Amino acid sequence: MEIGIDSFAMLLPDPDTGRLQSAVDRMESVLSEVELADQVGLDVFGMGEHHRENALDSAPAVILAAAAARTKSIRLTSAVAVLSASDPVRLFQEFATLDLISRGRAEIVVGRGSSVEAYPLFGFDLRDYDALFAEKLDLLLKIREQPNIKWQGRFRPAINGEGVFPRPHQPKLPIWLGVGGTPESFVRAGTVGLPLMVAIIGGSFERFLPLVELYRRAWLVAGHGHPAENHRIGVHALGFVGETDEAAKKAFFPGWFQMFTDAGRERGWPPPTQAQFEHMCGPGGAFLVGSPQTVAAKISHVNRTLGGIARITFQMSTAALDAEAMRRSIELLGTDVAPLVRGQLRD
Fold first, then answer.
1. CA–CA separation, 301 vs 284, rounded Å?
2. How far apart are CA 202 and CA 185, in angstroms?
3. Which residues of 39-68 are buried (b: 16+ CB within 10 A; e: fewer)?
4. How far apart are the C-alpha atoms of 184 and 176, rounded to whole Å?
5. What are the tens digits of pLDDT across the range 28-70?
6. Three-class secondary structure of residue 173 per DSSP
7. Of the residues 14, 25, 30, 220, which has the maximum number of CB atoms within 10 A of its CB?
8. Are 111 and 178 in contact (CB under 8 A)?
9. How many angstroms separate the Cα of 333 from the Cα of each of 40, 255, 259?
10. 177 φ/ψ sector (left φ>0, alpha ψ -120 to 50, else beta)
């Protein structure tokens, strides 16, 4: 199982003063985090995409290219690229270039995006939310297969054999489909034969099993071969590692509370509570927060619950204000959690 971290490069307000972090300092901390993740042997680092005042990740391929120059082994991916509001040609070129810079470590996770600010910014109608994604995914996959194609769609000018360059270092640039809780998205990933990255930011892991089974059935119906041999399922979850359960929760809670208070205000959710947080960190919740032993046990639980996963990535950016705790969490994830998980899998 591959284990990694994802970052949203958010600017968080100091809980005492309300002042936002310096953008320059926050960007340096993101690059330091991926450098450390590489040093402690983590497998993958993902960069999100947002287009808002408190985020620095509107151009994830640029950040990942800077990370590539400071790392040696870790794989570098979007988490997720909002394909519906992007030009698939340009997105492919950016990540093919990243693949050359990193000597074959680039991947793309594409999705429709749970945050929708990119749509009006780039002139797209939210009523075309799904149609945009379906058309652009089709184009992206065709470009991946060969540089010169003929293609025509509704939302982008036609391509009449012009070449899409550069080509990546890897023979086939890995593309995952990022999904939330929409059944049709799981079916689409299985139908087109793409690895699946499931974002689980609340509730329980158990409630996603029926959706993952939809993916597996769609894969078989589409004729891609037996799922156990060919497909890959990943999980993106909120998580943080501390020396003890209480230390991890103490470091993670303030940023989580602030982020989900802001998100609730935007989306009409009720405000988060301490009791909700404690439940999500407990055995029945979907947060991977705790000591190395607690987190490793919960990862093994996720793996069993969903019938086997190939990758799990931690979204721990909400703790970024505590730089020391953040660095220690990354260290523990690589040096303690990963060996524990792999030992449990072997057993």
1. 10
2. 18
3. ebebbbbbbbbbbeebbbbbebbebbbebb
4. 16
5. 999 999 999 999 999 999 999 999 998 999 999 999 999 999 9
6. coil
7. 30
8. yes
9. 8, 19, 23
10. beta
Q: Which letter does DSSP use for residue 334 in this model?
A: I
Alpha-carbon distance 344 to 213, whole Å? Answer: 24
What's the pTM? 0.95
- Compute the distance between CA of residue 60 and CA of residue 30 in angstroms, rounded to an integer: 12
Task: Please provide residue 315's backbone torsions phi and psi, each rounded to the nearest 5 degrees.
Answer: -95, 105
Taking the C-alpha atoms of residue 44 and residue 3, their distance in angstroms, rounded to an integer, is: 7
Length of the chain: 347
In angstroms, the CA 251 to CA 233 distance is 29
Encode pLDDT of 285-321 as tens digits.
999 999 999 999 999 999 999 999 999 999 998 877 7
